[in-house]
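Renewal narrative, Specific Aim 1. Our central claim is that a sequence can be written position by position from structural information alone. The example that follows is taken directly from our test logs and has not been curated for this report. It begins with the structure tokens describing the chain, in the order in which they were read.
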């Protein structure tokens, strides 16, 4: 799908989209069209429940007086509430309303009123961004789909007074969208296609954008002493990998880099502590955290962010087999601390333990932020709306929360604390990999990670509930969401990038 800008002129074919604000108030372009069609818009509204509420749509087919296939009315709601996010969501809803109609070409003719929160120029640009984000589709394995079942829209034109400025403003947003799509596709791919080696290959491909990529294999990790990560992968036929990506966008910066880490369990059977078979297929997206880190690196490199950023992903497959780790095994992590693995299904924390220690040791980063589909318990706490946030630093937590709010990838902070941490003390090793009982499972998991953070500012995002969506949302089709890419891109841009 191609998205471009055009100066306002009523097209002579295809679908035109015009806006109506709350209580059926036609915007000037909508009024103009109403006149050209002898009042078709007014009549259509009067004969429907369409009120112009935000994201409401109404289609008018083959109106007399113009050569258009259809007119789509889209509701803006209260115009003083319009902002960047709503512009994106309107873009997504417009695409969704037309994409199964057979129409190939749409022209969006929205004269956004321009509220205090958004200029009409930004409105057009963010409409385009939302359309783009919604246009993602994972259909590469659908070989029998009929042409008339596929999304039909091929070209979108959005009216704006300054076409070249709008195109320029859209460029960095498109780079972010490409990062989001990368994250979505990596997580959507099944585990027979994306396993540690192929996940690492996908990360390696970022070198085309100027990202330095290193891949460590099992021999390298054994030499380093990454017993926690290696123990998780030892039951799998697939070799475990640790991938280190570096984007050096600000060579003058003397401070340490920003570090992002991802859990990359390409399939989580639970290992010998095997999961029930119902729903186990969901565990192909247990590498969602690492997919976000790869997508983020792609976004930052794609828009040439002025920041030095390291991405580290721990890629393993958690399988039961004759060589698999057993419950009760004691492993020695890279930090030197020993871990009694009482449940082989609490594997993500073992992978991240070594990745965190490695990252702080080697890069002396300004902070570390890890993303992981770490616990089922976070889904019980927060469902699919918020991701869980844990941090040892209030400022970092506040910055992340604000960035999440700005892009509607919201975070909810949960506590850490000694009382929870104590649950991890073990009889025969320095710690065990699970808490004492069923309570506070996401918190004890975070406390476990914290034991591998050595006086570095750190935040952990438990994204188990938000990595996958069962329903379409305005700018996120169902399936893998890429939750975290837009959030962390925004976080870097707002707080850590030289202008
Ligand atoms: N990958 C899972 C967490 C998960 C569960 C993500 C459901 C998405 C949906 C993780 O490795 C896991 O199995 N965690 C266990 C920990 C427990 C054994 C302490 C869990 O949450 O049940
Ligand atoms: Mn598990
Ligand atoms: Zn897992």
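The sequence written for that structure reads:
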């Amino acid at each position: 799908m191609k998205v471009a800008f055009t100066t306002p002129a009523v097209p002579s074919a295809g679908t035109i989209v015009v806006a109506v604000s709350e209580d059926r108030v036609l915007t000037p372009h909508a009024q103009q069209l109403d006149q050209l069609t002898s009042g078709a818009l007014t009549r259509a509204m009067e004969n429907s429940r369409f009120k112009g509420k935000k994201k409401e749509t109404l289609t008018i087919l083959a109106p007399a007086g113009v050569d258009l296939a259809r007119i789509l009315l889209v509701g803006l709601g209260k115009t003083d509430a319009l902002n960047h996010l709503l512009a994106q969501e309107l873009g997504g809803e417009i695409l969704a309303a037309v994409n199964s109609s057979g129409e190939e070409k749409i022209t969006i003719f929205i004269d956004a009123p321009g509220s205090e929160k958004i200029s009409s120029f930004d409105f057009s640009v963010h409409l385009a961004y939302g359309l783009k984000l919604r246009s993602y589709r994972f259909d590469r394995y659908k070989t029998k789909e009929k042409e008339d079942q596929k999304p039909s829209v091929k070209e979108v034109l959005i009216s704006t007074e300054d076409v070249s400025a709008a195109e320029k403003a859209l460029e960095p947003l498109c780079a972010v969208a490409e990062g989001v799509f990368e994250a979505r596709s990596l997580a959507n791919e099944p585990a027979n296609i994306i396993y540690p080696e192929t996940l690492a290959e996908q990360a390696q491909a970022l070198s085309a954008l100027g990202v330095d990529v290193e891949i460590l294999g099992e021999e390298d990790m054994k030499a380093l002493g990454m017993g926690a990560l290696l123990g998780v992968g030892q039951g799998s036929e697939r070799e475990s990998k640790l991938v280190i990506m570096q984007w050096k966008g600000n060579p003058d910066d003397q401070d340490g880099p920003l570090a992002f880490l991802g859990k990359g369990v390409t399939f989580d059977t639970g290992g010998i502590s095997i999961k029930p078979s119902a729903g186990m297929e969901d565990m192909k997206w247990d590498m969602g955290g690492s997919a976000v880190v790869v997508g983020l690196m792609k976004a930052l490199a794609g828009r040439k962010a002025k920041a030095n950023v390291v991405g580290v992903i721990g890629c393993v497959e958690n399988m039961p087999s004759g060589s698999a780790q057993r419950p009760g095994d004691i492993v020695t992590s890279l930090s030197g601390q020993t871990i009694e693995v009482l449940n082989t299904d609490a594997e993500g924390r073992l992978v991240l333990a070594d990745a965190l220690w490695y990252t702080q040791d080697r890069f002396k980063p300004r902070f570390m932020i890890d993303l992981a589909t770490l616990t089922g318990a976070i889904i019980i706490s927060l469902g699919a709306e918020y991701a869980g946030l844990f941090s040892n630093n209030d400022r970092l937590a506040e910055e992340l929360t604000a960035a999440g709010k700005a892009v509607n990838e919201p975070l909810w902070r949960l506590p850490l604390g000694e009382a929870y941490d104590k649950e991890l003390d073990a009889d025969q090793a320095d710690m065990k990999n699970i808490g004492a009982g069923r309570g506070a499972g996401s918190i004890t998991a975070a406390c476990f990670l914290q034991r591998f953070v050595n006086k570095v500012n750190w935040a952990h995002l438990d994204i188990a509930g938000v990595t996958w969506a069962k329903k379409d949302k305005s700018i996120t089709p169902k399936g893998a969401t890429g939750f975290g890419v837009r959030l962390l891109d925004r976080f870097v841009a707002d707080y850590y990038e030289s202008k």
